[in-house]
Design goal:
- The protein is mainly β.
- 0% of the residues lie in helices and 46% in strands.
- The protein has strands spanning 11-13, 16-17, 20-21, 25-27, 35-43, 53-55, 60-63, 66-74, 78-85, 90-92, 94-95, 100-107, 111-119, 131-136, 142-147, 163-167, 177-179, 187-189.
- The strands form six sheets. The protein has a five-stranded antiparallel sheet, with no helix packed on it. The protein has a five-stranded mixed sheet with strand order 7-14-13-9-10, with no helix packed on it. Strands 1-4 form a two-stranded antiparallel sheet.
Length: 190
């Protein structure tokens, strides 16, 4: 005979048939460890002057050089937690509280990972979802001399007006012109 039942707690049983009785069997019920409440705090490189952002998905796209702080909660107490990158590198997470775990990673290239959890008794989690991190390239800035806009001739006493325009995908904080007159040291103008 076959019987199916839902296991919600530890169970012990014996089987009786006629005048026979088996030894006692035990089934230990447990909740497989799983990650919940993902949080990724992204801190872009300082030169971008972009604000820090937080995402609730472990899949992210961030500018190269961004510092990413991954945090997660576990549904049960854990003995260990880590990120296993698809290239074989394992990044351990540190315990930040009873069930909170985190790690810092600098986003330098595209990568993919799975979250590996083990409960207090060493039993593994069952989530094998591959999460992805996309490292976005920073385009180089463009600088254009708009005035005089072409080569010109000037006498030593002439004043030459110069105008420049610069742009960057993350903004331009400042520009400076470095020049020198023949026989003199270089000078800077902001």
């Amino acid at each position: 005979a076959r019987h199916a039942f839902t296991v919600k707690r530890d169970v012990e049983w014996r089987v009786a048939a006629g005048d026979g009785l088996t030894r006692t069997f035990r089934l230990d019920a447990y909740m497989p460890p799983a990650a919940t409440n993902f949080s990724v705090r992204l801190t872009p490189p300082a030169y971008t002057r972009r604000p820090e952002t937080t995402k609730s998905s472990p899949d992210v796209a961030a500018l190269r050089g961004t510092r990413a702080l991954w945090s997660l909660d576990a549904n049960v107490p854990l003995a260990s937690a880590s990120l296993r990158l698809t290239n074989g590198i394992v990044v351990p997470l540190r315990r930040d509280g009873d069930r909170r775990w985190s790690t810092d990673i600098h986003v330098l290239s595209n990568m993919a990972f799975t979250v590996v959890l083990a409960d207090a008794k060493g039993r593994p989690g069952i989530d094998s979802t591959v999460r992805r991190v996309r490292a976005l390239a920073d385009a180089p800035p463009t600088v254009e001399v708009t005035l005089p806009g072409r080569d010109i001739r000037a006498l030593p006493a002439d004043t030459v007006p110069i105008a420049m325009a610069a742009s960057d995908d993350h903004g331009v904080a400042s520009m400076e012109l470095v020049f020198h007159k023949l026989g003199e040291p270089a000078r800077k103008v902001s």
